[in-house]
Amino acid sequence: MTAKEKLRRRVETLTEEQAAEALRVLDLRVEDPVLAAFDSAPEDDEPWTQEDEAAAEESRAEYRRGEGVRLDEIRHEFS
Fold first, then answer.
1. Interhelix angle for 16-31 vs 33-40, to 10°?
2. Is residue 45 part of a domain?
3. How confident is the model over 18-61, as pLDDT tens digits?
């Protein structure tokens, strides 16, 4: 069964409200220039280095120690 056939079957099981929401999401996906840019962007092909891993581990350790900044605090600072 193709993806389109599966989609047609799935659509038939949706309520009218669910179908309207699904259509809205699909329309956004097609019409949004930012999403279109992400879709057409090349895959990141830079290798992950030991320096990258060390920086990521340092960030994870800070998070585990509770040293992260909450999103609402960042929003408040920049609003």
1. 70
2. no
3. 999 999 988 887 888 888 888 889 988 899 999 999 999 999 99
User: Which 3 state secondary structure label does DSSP give 62?
Assistant: helix
* Domain containing residue 66: 3-39+50-78
Which of 24, 19, 17, 16 minimizes the C-alpha distance to 7? 19
Q: Is 57 domain-assigned?
A: yes
Burial of 72 (0-12, 13-18, 19+ CB in 10 A): exposed
E strand spans, 1-79: none
d(Cα 66, Cα 56) in Å, to the nearest integer?
A: 15
Residue 29 lies in a domain: yes
Structural domain includes residue 60? yes
CB neighbours of 22 closer than 8 A, spacing ≥ 6? 11, 14
Domain count, the chain: 1
